[in-house]
Every structure is written in structure tokens, then in C-alpha cells.
Design brief:
- The protein is an alpha+beta fold.
- The chain has a domain at 27-112: 3-Layer(aba) Sandwich (NADH Oxidase), CATH 3.40.109.10.
- Helix content is 37%, strand content 16%.
- The chain has three helices and three strands, in the order αβαβαβ.
- The protein has helices spanning 8-24, 45-72, 87-93, and strands spanning 28-35, 76-80, 100-109.
- The protein has a three-stranded antiparallel sheet with strand order 1-3-2, with helices on both faces.
- It starts with 7 loop residues before the first helix and ends in a 32-residue tail after the last strand.
- The mean pLDDT is 87.
């Protein structure tokens, strides 16, 4: 934030209000990491980049599944990607191996309130607003 022109005092206030209190008041805080040892090595940059992106997507899919499991157990959860901005610091504080790339922080606990089931969901957009269906040659409807 300091590099973005936010004053030190304002940055400290924002961190304390938005993040620090959430973290320190959470019964469970997890740091999801990508272990680069598990990323297959390729000789060309294009395939190596694709392999790395697939590994990042796998971490994200794991986190999404974790959030769904928490919800199923009536727990509240919050996913923050702030560790991406300070991977070295997170690695150092948690004594993680150099091959671990902190990707996200997940806080889990008992929610302060239950969402109202009586709430009317927003109107859904029609599927054809999102994609078109292209038929391949020889396809029968």
C-alpha cells in the first residue's frame, strides 16, 4: 500500500481493521501453498508456464472444495490471496521450505450470523447470454 501512495498511518489502520482482526479472531487460519517440487519440469518455457498454471489452478480448486466442505458443516470461511504479495515473509515466519509458494490464506470459524434462507435470489441471466452452442458437422439434435 505504501508503494501505491497510501500513508503509513492509513495503511496500518486498514491492515488492522480489514485483515489483522479477522486473522487473529479466527479459530483456524490455513495457508495454502504450492510445492514447486511437485511441478513437472519441461525444457521449453511455454509448457513449463502451462504446468505451473495448472498447479496454481489445482491449489485454487482445493481451496474451493475446502470452502464448500466448510459450508456443508455450517462454518464460515474467508479466502484471501494476500500471501501472494509477501511470499518470502510468509515462508520465513512459518519456516516453510523455499520450494513452497504461499498462495492463499483461508480463515474458518463459526459465523456470527446465518444467512437468511428467506432472501429472494437475484434473477438469473439466460444461458445464451454467456455462451453459444456450436454444433459440429454430423451432429444430430
Amino acid at each position: 500500500m505504501l508503494k501505491d501512495g497510501v500513508s503509513r498511518g492509513e495503511a496500518e489502520t486498514l491492515v488492522k481493521l480489514r485483515t489483522w482482526n479477522r486473522i487473529t479472531n479466527s479459530p483456524l487460519v490455513m495457508i495454502a501453498c504450492l510445492d514447486t517440487n511437485d511441478v513437472r519440469k519441461f525444457s521449453d518455457a511455454r509448457r513449463q508456464r502451462a504446468e505451473y498454471l495448472m498447479a496454481v489452478q489445482s491449489v485454487a480448486a482445493y481451496i474451493q472444495t475446502l470452502l464448500l466442505a466448510a459450508y456443508d458443516h455450517e462454518l464460515g470461511a474467508c479466502w484471501l490471496c494476500t500471501p501472494l504479495f509477501c511470499q518470502s515473509a510468509v515462508r520465513k515466519v512459518l519456516s516453510l521450505p523455499e520450494t513452497f509458494e504461499p498462495q492463499a490464506m483461508i480463515m474458518i470459524g463459526i459465523p456470527d450470523e446465518k444467512p437468511s434462507l428467506a432472501r429472494v435470489p437475484p434473477e438469473r441471466k439466460a444461458l445464451d447470454e454467456f455462451f453459444t452452442l456450436n454444433r459440429w458437422p454430423g451432429h444430430r439434435s
